[in-house]
Design brief:
Order of helices and strands: EEEEEEEEH
Structural class: mainly beta
CATH architecture: Sandwich
Number of helices: 1
Radius of gyration: 13 Å
Largest sheet: 5 strands, antiparallel
CATH topology: Jelly Rolls
């Protein structure tokens, strides 16, 4: 993902089964992750390492500048049915899970 205007937020969804690995080779991106109870914020930039997001976590990314690049590796092919795109759907789905 590249060419995202500064301060724009992307993502804002969760996956039921897909896990993702995020890295930022150019620029800086703030990644917010939560499980409905706890919230974590990470800043990805060159040399800062990468972030693994397991399935079942809500995530969003805020781009610091338009030159920032986010590389996302997923452990499965795109499947629209795997997405939870609204916070309400995510919370309902989480409540139905046997963690």
């Amino acid at each position: 993902m590249s060419g995202v205007p500064a301060d724009q937020i992307r993502g804002e969804h969760a996956h039921k089964e897909c896990a993702q690995f995020l890295t930022c080779p150019v620029g800086s991106i703030e990644v917010c992750v939560d499980n409905g109870n706890s919230h974590w914020t990470f800043t990805l930039s060159p040399g800062s390492g990468s972030l693994f997001i397991p399935a079942g976590l809500w995530a969003s990314q805020k781009y610091s500048d338009p030159s920032a690049v986010l590389v996302v590796l997923a452990d499965m092919q795109y499947d629209e049915a795997d997405y939870l795109r609204s916070r309400g759907d995510y919370e309902s789905w989480m409540a139905s899970q046997l963690w």
